[in-house]
Specification:
With 125 residues, the protein is an alpha+beta fold. It has a domain at 2-74. 32% of the residues lie in helices and 10% in strands. The protein has helices spanning 2-6, 23-26, 55-69, 90-94, 98-108, and strands at 14-19, 41-46. It has a two-stranded antiparallel ribbon with strand order 1-2. The radius of gyration is 17 Å and the shape is globular.
């Protein structure tokens, strides 16, 4: 992490660690969609730039950081921090709550009317 933090190719790129404590940890895991209430930290990668000419270097830095951190991170993700094209990670965003949420989605939105690129999809649509 230190190397990537010191060798940022673009000033607006960065990384962070959020510490989860307090009320978020006192709510039962199955009380809401958010399942990662027992995690103590959340790791973030910020990849941001203005110029299209920075795409290659910014994406390379972000991807290399992500690949270097994957061995140390659980297979979990916060849905609001996901990028387009990560629909394969939606189930890991909801963890043990995913199947329950699919059941709710199938019951109340079987046509998948309420959808976005990273939402739970109805299995009946």
């Amino acid at each position: 992490m230190t190397r990537f933090g010191l060798d940022k190719p673009i000033d607006r790129c960065g990384l962070g660690i959020e510490y989860l404590n307090g009320a978020v940890t006192r709510v039962p895991v199955d009380a809401t969609a958010f399942a990662h209430r027992n995690a103590r930290q959340n790791f973030l990668i910020f990849g941001s730039w203005d110029e299209p000419s920075q795409n290659e270097v910014g994406m390379r830095w972000s991807n290399e950081l992500w690949q270097s951190m994957k061995p140390f991170i659980a297979n979990r993700v916060y849905v609001n921090y996901m990028n387009e094209g990560e629909s394969d990670r939606v189930a890991s965003a909801y963890g043990e709550n995913y199947q329950r949420l699919v059941t709710v989605k199938n019951k109340y939105d079987p046509s998948n009317f309420f959808r976005s690129n990273l939402s739970i999809a109805s299995t009946k649509a």
